[in-house]
Design goal:
The strands form two sheets. The protein has a six-stranded parallel sheet with strand order 2-1-3-4-5-11, with helices on both faces. It folds into three domains: 4-55, Orthogonal Bundle (434 Repressor (Amino-terminal Domain)); 61-161 and 294-323, Response regulator (Rossmann fold, 3-Layer(aba) Sandwich), CATH 3.40.50.2300; 163-293 and 326-332, Response regulator (Rossmann fold, 3-Layer(aba) Sandwich), CATH 3.40.50. Strand 1, helix 5 (73-87) and strand 2 (91-96) form a beta-alpha-beta unit. It is α/β, with parallel strands linked by helices. The protein contains twelve helices and twelve strands.
Length: 341
């Protein structure tokens, strides 16, 4: 007896495409539909009616794919998504991609196999991702909302923060405090947040008349060990920066560990400001100047948009940009007695 896998192989399409054709989905183009139906006839394929009836029931599950639940930035986001899902009588499947496109692809496949009702995705990469077509095909069956980052070439509902302006404000604050040599440890350029925060950093320097120096910039996968290594490199330069601007809380934590290991003092030896206002920013001494992102609101808006998209698939697509704010503490001060001029 022929299986759905046999039909997919004969038609030269994915199992998911066969499933959509048999379910009567209008998202499959006519040519592919004809190939699938031809293969069904040739193989005399007969779907299991019980299994099919279970598959076409309305799903009450959504997927949430984030880079790393251990990154404190995502804790409020996850809570907000779960709150909205619970109120809407949905459950949440949480997946950690670890900024790995292969792992992200695997989770996307699993969620598609589960006939998920929709997905909120923090994409591992913005450009040149092998998952773009996979995400596009998934979005033909179930809504996908992008959170915190874009994917080039895909038109989907997207929820972001004002990364360029927020980074500009953070670096400008350091400049106004008297810093002229400002290093930056940011996410890689093929992640939206890394690219846009770098843009804000460069723009702030230019507007202050400070030349851009490539040796003061490190763009890395935004995890604590990478922040530590990048800080060690910047602080070992013959003329190290007087301040460092970081792209997220993980990178900030890496810088703090490097400063501690090098027995440096903040802000007299090195000043610090960066993205994400974590609870520990007010516990360490001096307190850390940070750009506070509306994390709970990000998750709440993303989940609300997904629920609306599930209910009304034909709604116009939206890009929503939320505003962050600079929270000033003592870590970003400039000390006249510092060795850094």
């Amino acid at each position: 007896m022929a299986s759905m896998t046999d039909v997919a192989r004969r038609a030269g399409v994915s199992i998911a495409t066969v499933s959509r054709v048999l379910a009567g989905s209008e998202s499959v183009n006519a040519a592919l539909r004809d190939r699938v139906l031809t293969a069904v006839r040739e193989l005399n394929y007969r779907p299991n009616k019980v299994a099919r009836s279970l598959r076409v029931q309305k799903s009450t599950s959504i997927g949430l794919i984030i880079p790393d639940i251990q990154n404190s930035f995502y804790l409020s986001i996850v809570r907000a998504v779960e709150d909205v899902a619970f109120d809407s009588h949905f459950r949440v499947f949480l997946c950690n991609s670890d900024e790995d496109v292969a792992k992200e692809a695997l989770y996307l496949s699993h969620l598609d196999d589960e006939q998920i009702a929709g997905v909120i995705l923090v994409p591992a990469r913005e450009k040149q991702t092998p998952n773009t077509e996979q995400i596009r095909h998934l979005a033909e069956r179930a809504p996908v909302v992008l959170l915190d980052r874009r994917i080039a070439g895909l038109d989907l509902d997207t929820i972001l923060t004002n990364n360029v302006d927020a980074a500009y404000d953070g670096v400008t604050h350091l400049v106004r405090n008297g810093h002229r040599s400002i290093g930056a440890i940011l996410g890689v350029s093929d992640i939206t947040t890394g690219r846009e925060r770098f843009e804000g950093y460069v723009r702030a320097l230019a507007d202050a008349g400070i030349p851009y120096e490539a040796e003061y910039v490190r763009q890395v996968v935004p995890k604590e060990p990478n922040g530590y290594a990048a800080a060690q490199q910047l602080l070992a330069l013959p003329n190290p920066p007087s301040a460092i601007f970081t792209g997220n809380c993980e990178l900030t934590a890496g810088v703090l560990r490097a400063v501690c290991d090098l027995n440096l003092n903040m802000p007299s030896d090195i000043a610090l400001a960066g993205f994400d206002d974590m609870p520990w920013n007010v516990i360490v001494r001096p307190g850390i100047t940070a750009i506070a992102q509306p994390t709970y609101e990000l998750g709440h808006v993303a989940a609300t948009v997904l629920m609306e998209r599930i209910a009304k698939p034909a709604k116009p697509l939206r890009e929503i940009v939320l505003k962050s704010k600079l929270v000033v503490r003592k870590s970003s001060q400039f000390t006249d007695g510092s060795d850094h001029a």
